[in-house]
Structure prediction request, 226 residues.
Amino acid sequence: MNLGGEGLACARGERQIFAGLNFTLGPGELLLARGANGSGKSSFLRVVAGLLHPSAGTLRLNGSVLLPGAALLSPHVIYIGHQDPVKPSFSVEENLLFWMGMAGHAVDYRRGGQGGLREAARSGRVEAALEAFGLAGLGQIPARFLSAGQKRRLNLARLAAIDRPLWLLDEPATSLDSAAQELLAASMRRHRQQGGLIIAVSHTDLGEDVTHLLNFGPQHRMEHMA
Prediction:
């Protein structure tokens, strides 16, 4: 999978957030977006995710132009934003299964009994995803009892549970301690080794070698890292 942007611009109301932005990304590559608060990094991620329409420019997937409003990129993307959309009345497992269902996995949403959420969880994918982010053994706990760091790790567990080639990560290390940051770095490394692509916004070191650095400021520019 190859992804690129040409002359991208984004406006919110009458404010031009960024313009003339170009980038390219290929299998196994990590693009890191950096810049001051309000410089347009999160808006850039939302444009790539299809949550915002660019006011100018084009996105290309494998050489084909993605038209504004088209859902062509959606089946390829996992987007992790600032907020952790954890449902407090659901268990840890149920939250992850809900997100898997939203992504197209076959999930029966009835609780308990034959075919219920807990039965579906026994497929192994949920357990493996929770283990990848240090939540093994917490599957049945109501999410309202989780700490901020645990809620973040539950949100990030979607990366392991849902197979998508493009990860869009907005400050993914927020609320994570050093051990959890290492789990995130290991997950990113595995994804890249399998040919996955990552675009991340982060003020902190993610523990991974950056392929491209996209600086947001008065003049947006992309640097190819050695």
User: Anything to note?
Assistant: The chain has seven helices and ten strands. The first strand starts at residue 3 and ends at 12. The chain has one domain: 3-224. The chain has a mean pLDDT of 85.
